[in-house]
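Q: How would the structure tokens look for this protein?
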Amino acid sequence: MAFPTDLEIANKADIQHINKIAQSCNIDQEDLELYGKYKAKLPLSYSKLYEKKSGKLILVTAITPTPAGEGKTTTTIGLTDGLNYIGKKAVAVLREPSLGPVFGMKGGAAGGGYAQVIPMEDINLHFTGDFSAIEKANNLLSAVIDNNLNSKKYSLNIDPSSITWKRVMDMNDRTLRDIVIGIGNGNGVVRQDGFNITPASEIMAILCLAENFTDLKERLGNIYVANTYDGKPVYAKDLKCVGAMAILLKDAIKPNLVQTLEGNPAIIHGGPFASIAQGTNTVIATKTGLGIGEYVVTEAGFGADLGAEKFLHIKCVSAGLSPDAAVIVATVRALRHHGGATKDEYGTPSLERVEKGIANLEKHIENVQKFGLQAVVAINYFPQDSEEEIEFIRQRCEQKGVKAVVCKGFAEGGSGAADLAQAVVDLVDEGASNFQPLYQKSDSIEKKIQTIAQEIYGAKKVNYLPKAKSQLRSIKKNSFDHLPVCMVKTPKSLSDDDSKIGRPEGFEITVREFEIAAGAGFVIPLLGDTMRMPGLPPVPAAEGMDIDHDGTITGLS
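A: Here is the predicted structure in token form.
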């Protein structure tokens, strides 16, 4: 019998009223803002519980993934259910899915198999409207900028060629990367513009780092949008639309409470990509989880070279968080990939290829350890995995001082992740993690980039194209060089070149240009040809989706 699809499993789940989930973690039902029976928003006051009752923070990261991903979200949810299965009070804290990947390459992003968050369709499609609010706030600022260009009485003397702020939409649409607006009589100033995908919006980054409305408004006001004709920076606060932007985000700033298939609490909030943004959920959601649970299991996008690095250098430093342990998700099929297997060979056992590919996992273990964190490797199990391959992985991890545990959360839910859960508890009880960032706020932008490139990627040298060098001078002139860096890089390699799989050595990376996210509080170096507006694949996931006359959705997985 074929294994049921994610959607089939989700549809058969015994979903509980969200009031029961709230009750399980001592949340007053009167504090819930209900979105139907199975979703609710929580007030910001619950994030303050973190100050009095701090749970243990577990960061789930991964090795360099194949295009389909290695099950990091599935493992995060499975581990949460596993911790509850062995008697701990655990909460999953996750990012919200973007419609871009949902209809593009990956399909749904609410976990998989028997390690999912539900209601699955709602979470993947619009959810509670957070992404829509972020889009509207972002595009309000765009409209106000263009309106000011067209104004004579209230003009800020903005140079249209210097405008860096782009519009956004939550869909993969490559045709919108570079556009010309204002064409036609009376339609404003003609200029070049473009769209980013919503997870790449600075508003998304700001929402994920803001701790309250005051912090949110200050960060929104500090958004750098352009220069005047005489070279002075223009910020969102100069355009006097910060209050209106904050109003649009009045509900989006509140975290969302849902549940796992096994009825355990899950907070889902914010959704920046890790390849083009910081790749983590909101500070508010994480602190809320730490206030209501003994263990908080959270994930950071893609491998430890992207999401985990940004989680630690940006989110943790900004919010004063310190993880108690890390979980590195690996699959045998990904190690075969890094050992040279082609896509149609991913499911074929090959100890030789795993032996070649293991260097990628070892590098990610080292990356986590560089930050002073102790880790467990979760081998996300597939039926095609041979015991010989798994045993080899265990032995090599042991040589790195790390325990590797097979996780079967996808097929078995919490019981299949119980061994992983116990290994995590044992590691936390040891108390050996001591988080330390790899660079300091006072370091130059060049030193911060060099530190990440050499220590985390393993690069030999960092090169800067002429445009990046010019922008670097502007960054220093405008005193943005004290900010951390949020690298935009391919998730397919430790380098900035997709073709360099495994653990490449002796390579150089190239910064082609910079973007400034002064509101969010970081500088963005762009490496390679990574796009902030992805395109759809030749056969998008959307082609396999449908809804019947009864409203039953199919193909969303």
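The longest strand covers residues 508-517.

DSSP finds 18 helices and 23 strands in the chain.

Upvote if useful.
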